[in-house]
Specification:
Layout lengths: L2 E4 L21 E4 L7 H8 L4 E4 L8 H5 L6 E4 L9 H6 L3 E3 L8 H15 L2 H9 L15 E5 L5 H10 L3 E5 L5 H6 L3 E2 L2 H7 L2 E4 L13 H5 L6 E4 L8 H9 L5 E4 L19 E3 L8 H19 L9 H7 L7
């Protein structure tokens, strides 16, 4: 009897997005909403299971963890790439790793980026709290028109973000290590150096893939170059911005604020200083968590399990292709 675990179903809605009755009748299925904190807790939880379904990059499956799961035969991930899974280690251990497609790549996260930009520039979270506490207006919003939007990385996420900025009447500038003037013009932006982007932008938004070359892409020296009334937005990956430097910048008001959907450690610890800073707007890595996305992710996860159990696995992640994806690109 195949034992199947679904992990990190934070909202508790994964079962509602697909027909799980397609699985063979002898399968057992267990859903875990709460995150397993640390490798020991994860291994203890998953040791009995033959098949594990995970949401993209919510849980790390490195070689050490995979080696401690001798019953695991199939690891189903949402999306076609998952940096949290050591696909080569899985292949070495005889574990199949299968992924899924995704609808309109990038648009869900680009939309959240603008929700965060607008939320922070108009202090929506502060005024909502005021209303619930029987207070009235305490903040003053900023107009986006004529401000400068600095986009770091112009790919499937950064490009729609840049175009929306232009629609708001913003001056859009962009930079990434390999960007060309033609690429910037295609997205409606002007190519500038990194230093100029940081110095001139009123809103800086980051849309780069995480790799060893892009880790700490923005450090303390970079944050000090920004305007004191500028805001920083990150919906890509937490470690692109040095976290200690960001906390210091927010505490000491080097910048006006930060809107963040991603963090070095997820879920973000309850006592983390970012949770206590008044000039932050925080969301729990929900850029891709939309109905349209789940309507692709979850049915294709079920298809992957059915195919694997029939001896004909589909959408198998290739270790070399996954390794190639680890190289820095305009965005993830």
């Amino acid at each position: 009897m195949p034992k199947i675990a679904i992990i990190d179903d934070y909202v508790g809605n994964v079962l509602s997005y697909a027909d799980w009755s397609q699985l063979p009748a002898d399968c057992s299925l267990q859903v875990y909403q709460a995150h397993a904190d640390g490798p020991d807790a994860l291994v203890t939880r998953l040791a009995p299971y033959d098949i594990v379904c995970c949401m993209r990059e919510r849980t790390v499956f490195d070689r050490a963890v995979l080696a401690r799961l001798p019953n695991l035969k199939l690891l189903c991930s949402t999306a076609a790439y998952n940096a949290a899974i050591d696909v080569q280690a899985a292949a070495d251990l005889g574990i199949k790793v299968c992924g899924t497609g995704a609808p309109d790549p990038g648009f869900a996260t680009a939309e959240l980026t603008w929700a965060l930009i607008l939320g922070l520039t108009r202090q929506v979270h502060v005024e909502d709290a005021n209303m619930r506490a029987a207070r009235w207006q305490t903040t003053m919003g900023r107009d986006l028109k004529y401000l400068t939007l600095g986009v770091i990385g112009l790919g499937r996420l950064g490009t729609p973000v840049a175009r929306v900025g232009a629609a708001f009447g913003m001056n859009v500038i962009a930079w990434s290590p390999n960007m060309t003037e033609a690429r910037a013009r295609e997205a409606g932006a002007s190519l500038v150096t990194k230093d100029i982007l940081l110095a001139q932008s009123d809103v800086v938004t980051v849309h780069m893939a995480l790799s060893e070359r892009t880790r700490d892409l923005l450090g303390a020296d970079d944050l000090r170059k920004m305007k004191k009334d500028a805001i920083l937005v990150n919906t890509s990956r937490g470690p692109l911005i040095n976290e200690a430097a960001l906390v210091q910048a927010l505490k000491e008001n080097w910048i006006a604020g930060a809107a963040l959907d991603v963090f070095d450690q997820e879920p973000l610890p309850g006592a983390h200083p970012l949770r206590r800073l008044p000039n932050t707007l925080l969301t729990p890595h929900i850029g891709y968590s939309t109905e349209a996305t789940y309507k692709v992710f979850i049915p294709e996860t079920v298809e992957n399990i059915v195919a694997f159990l029939a001896g004909k696995p589909i959408r198998v992640m290739n270790p070399k292709a996954q390794a190639d994806r680890s190289q820095p690109k305009y965005l993830d």
